[in-house]
Amino acid sequence: MSIPTRIAQKPKRALHRYRNFFLTFFVLLSLSVTIILTSYLSSLGKTVKRSKYTALTLDNVNSPVVKQIAINSPSANPTNASCNYFNCFNIYRCGNQGNKLLVYVYPLKNYVDPANVPVTNQISKEFYLILQAIAGSSFYTSDPFEACLFIPSIDTLNQNRLRVKEVSQALKSLEFWNDGENHLIFNMIPGSVPDYNTVIDIPVSKAMIAGAGFSSLTYRAGFDVSLPVYSPHLENYKRQAQNRRNWLIISSQININSAFQQDLIEVKITFPNDLMVLGPCYHHNPMNSSIRCAGEDVYNYPDVLETGTFCLVIRGARLGQSSLLEAMAAGCIPVVIADSLTMPFHGVIDWIRAAIFVREVDILKAPEILKNVSRKRVVELRQHGTWLYERYFKSIQAITETTLEIMSDRVYPHLARDYNYWNVPQYPGIVPSLFLPVTAPKTRGFTAVILTYDRLESLFILITKLVKAPSLSKVLVIWNNQRKDPPEPSQWPKINRPLKVIQTKANKLSNRFYPYDEIETEAMLSIDDDIVMLTADELEFGFEVWREFPDRIVGFPSRTHIWDNSSICWKYESEWTNHISMVLTGAAFHHKYWSYMYTTSMPGDIKEWVDDHMNCEDIAMNFLVANMSGKPPIKVTSRKKFKCPECTNTEMLSADLNHMIERSQCINRFSSVYGTMPLKSVEFRADPVLYKDVFPKKLKRFNDIGSL
Amino acid sequence: MQAKKRYLLLFITCAFLAYCYFGGYRLKSEKWTVKKQEPHEKLPSYLTLNEEFYDKDLKSTGINNLLLVSRNTNQCRMETCFDFTRCRQGFTVYVYPIEDNISPLYQKILNVITESRYYTTDPSRACMFVLGLDTLDRDPLSAEFVHNLPSKLLRLTYWNNGRNHLIFNLYSGTWPDYAEESLSFDLGYAILAKASMSQFKLRPNFDISIPLFGKQHPERGGEPGQAPENHFPTNKKYVAAFKGKRYVHGIGSETRNALYHLHNGKDLVFVTTCRHGKSWRELQDEHCQQDNQEYDMYDYEILLMNSTFCLVPRGRRLGSFRFLEALRAGCIPVILSNGWALPFHERINWEQAVIFSDERLLLQIPDIVRSVSNADILKYRQQTQFLWERYFSSVEKIIFTVFETLRERLPWEGKREGSVWNSSPGALVTLPQFTDSQQELPFSNCEPGNTFTAIIYSQLGSTAVLYRLLRSVAKSKYLDKIILMWNTDIPLPRRPRWQGIRASIHVVAANGISHRFYPQKLMTTSAVLSLDEDATLNTDEIDFAFTVWRYFPERIVGYPARSHYWDDSKRSWGYTSKWTNDYSIVLTGAAFYHRYYNTLYTELLSSTLHKTVAQSQNCEDILMNFLVSHVTRRPPIKVTQRKLYKDTTVAGIRSPWNDPDHFIQRQTCMNTFVAVFGYMPLLRSNMRLDPVLFKDSVSNLRKKYRQIELVSN
Lengths: 708, 713
Known about the structure:
Chain A: It is an enzyme of class 2 (transferase). Chain A: Its main location: endoplasmic reticulum. The structure holds two protein chains of two kinds. Chain A is α/β, with parallel strands linked by helices. Chain A is built from 18 helices and 25 strands. In chain A, about 45% of the residues are buried. In chain B, α11 packs across α13 (about 375-390). In chain B, α16 links the parallel β13 and β14. Helix content of chain B is about 30%, strand content about 15%. By secondary structure, chain B is an alpha/beta fold. The interface between A and B is large, with 147 and 129 residues. β25 of chain A pairs antiparallel with β23 of chain B.
């Protein structure tokens, strides 16, 4: 205790005076060094990016560089209606960085005509956010020469706020315009009085349009991207947790055309308790966007949509309506009444899962149609709509990123995400029904994979027994003992099937589930070297059952898990129970695919943990298969005494008890890694059709089954 | 003292440093966010209420606009060019009487339609019209080209410029440009179901792209997929292959002409030949000689079976036969046909089954196919098999898929989600009229509920056997209600024996044997327990079968197992009730199945099948097994050892089971069914399911299903 202090006191006298000074000096020095270093590093980071091209800066949004468009400068060619991905998109610009879509955004500029009048209104918040989202996304590049996609930074979101001809001239003047090739024009409010075209009227030549409110006549499939009309109301809107939905239908739009308005009034008269028609508040402030009125009643908008089950989205002057997103945000199922409307992200999103479509001529029948929707379906539609909204439409950023993802899928079609990625919530990466409902072919048989350490005697017995099963095609011995080499080939039992020994590098349990190339069959029989009590009939029948359930573990020793209420945790159970939830891989058939999954896709640290503890690899496998397939295992035939049939001494008992505790711990540990209990219990097992029937033995296919 | 000072100083400096670090950071970030938020917070929104309010469509042009457009038949949409009112009675199809000679393939199509459930003989009730004129081949150079089609069309009684007509076509255009739209007649408002369509030519949500299929394509049934194995990782010899002709010159020749660049003879085999047509020698280029040599070294079929990916490049037209051939072989198609709308692309999500590539980037193909992971290859290959078996393997399936796509466009017929179309068992056997929610179908992973409805078919009246059965059913804790199907020939007893039974029993009149599968409104549970009146099951057996069924709601789970076999001497299928080591039928005399199959039985099966059952007053249970196996492609499930499920003591009265003709009749039924289905859908199983502790040497008290142990066979 005292010795170290004495040592420490020795130099004290010599440096006594200067200690404080040095200490302060040192502290200050290190402080200044850190400050300089941080500032230097942060500036360095910026300069690295700026090395060749300047990254997009949006800070100058209020005072961008002014660029004048000459009065007679050429405008872009008219939008080419017959453009498609193959004739107007230059694929050779893409692929500069492997399979990554690179997007360039032109610097912000204020385009003015010769009279210094800007060609568009001030840049809108939404367009600013679009540019910001692109610049912040992984697709962004500041190098226009490696870019595949170009985004003009001229705000074209709302056609009412721009001058068509001048904007086209401005587009044409862009540095890399090249007749609009690979350019993407964002737009949400197309058309104008009186025709209200369904596509933005600016001539954009070969450019693609990411636009809202396309009709199926103007949307160029595989080329344009259909967007939703973003609603500024939703910026600060938050849905209440619970709200009673008293109204069957709510119509909230203020821009419905008069014919539909008449229809709605008619419907309201027939179904006064089902339909609520909201309009602008003439007696308040009709220009207040956050309220809507039904007669004298004033409601907050869009909160009022939370009281409806269905919300109408009716074509107004334009096809696309912001009420679609408002309804979805409020958890109100959109009922789209707009013939020929191309829905947002058409082609990837399956809208049948989230919306109801009613033809314009059927508007009067809408209440009947909607009343026929079952309750379960209503819940499904609402849940899916909410999910879609949260994933794709929640913010301008989400919408922009989805647009770029769709573009990326087009440019790299071999990497395109499928229906499940876009439309199935909680897509786990693996299709639950990995295997088609088929009976696996018999011809190839199965490969027996034996994990062994040094029990040669029982191993040899096992091999000679296995060979009696006609469907066995190969024996694979996993030699897990590094201290000892496997016996010479001459010492192995002579069998008429190929036998292969694999020496492992480390004594790990997971070696038994490695998908060795030597396993050439679909089915593998995973078996311990001491399981010598299985008969050939049992093995053959087990394989037959596996063929009928190729996506499950099919085997002999079964266990179950039970919830222990006293200790509030799972318990491992090996007693004679009426149900089973695990089949131990000490003697079980399973598809080689599960071995691959065990090796590559085991969640958390389960695999390492099993290897460290040298236990529970079979439980881990059962968890994995049950979690991925959602199906329980199949136990084959009656219960057997598996371990050590002849020994009954009491010493085993305490070892057994420890074993059970350890196994219970495994179950609890794994279920916490999965976050749930994937195991499923069943009350049945598989037997041969004529099992224990009073029937001539000669006529039974599997006789030697079920003895202890 | 000194130490104290020193530590104090150290502490202060540390605190200062910490403050600088954390505080400074906060200061900096605050400054940053303020600076960043400023610009866009102040910006105006792109849309104000004003605009929404004033941008009203004052002229109410919308619909009229569309109608104006509809004069231009190139821009047809369902809303403008289709008469929905004709289809109010449902989706029915009328076929004009056959005029002229029609090709065997078109004859097949018409056969399929006239024998289908869509067919109507009454043109006034028809929703769609199909021509009796062969329009499959519209290449004027072809022998099967029908001349003077425009004038023949005009003579048709209901033509009406093609409204509600469906026109099938496989080939259009001719040498040298093979223009897709040149059909040599005016389509008018007719819907075109055509092969090799381009995405940019077809009228979206109106025309339908179908696959190119050959004369040998089977009318119904069809060959199963050739890749039933799920080897992992894939063990094919070649990564990608192609063998076909190339055209040297003209439309669509560039892609195939360039393929030899990719050929390496090892894992990539791309061989072409210039030999085709009469004058290939005049047209050949410098590479033809070598190409022809290599071409002869490989066999097409062998390549197909031994390759993981198969190139499907465009020919003169966009589609080719090899697309279906590759699909069937489980050789993942790599599509090299820019703009081709793959068959039924509206509903089938091809991204799950094929690799799309770009003709412009031909040389990337080796890299692309090599980059696909093993797990993905397995998924793709399984999807090819699924799609082939459910939508493409026979003319019937292709035509029905066209019809179902069209039917979904009628708003009152119900729509299926994309996941129904793209996962087993597919859309052709998923009827939207059963439910609008996927959860209620047997194929979903949802809980099928924990109660069942028992349906007892009674022909004998209120007997003691029936009473005993009612009693054991009523004792089940899973029972929802019992429906007694009372044969109308027998009067209802005034004071039935079952009055004392504590379960809700509904008596329903049944006329005819198929009536037991009629979808009753009374049935609300997913599970249906179908029973013959003389079935002898105890409560434990019923409960156990139900718990098993809940794990296999898509299958028939029950007791009486039967088998089918091929009788080589008679060249026909046989039916046996002998005890065998396997089974393929579980009779509905004592079995659980999903209520959905009642709807399918009534709605999906063709009238020929219903007639067969009605005439023989027999075989309805076999037909149900055919149907379920056809839908699921899985065998039924037999539970526990009970084999005799009929009480033989009452059988003497009127039971058909003692009738020797009975078996012959069932055999005949079976062969009729096979003919109508076009194949034998029944599948065999080698196992039955027993309770976990069945006949185990453990105390009976431990067992849950004790009564089952006592049943002798």
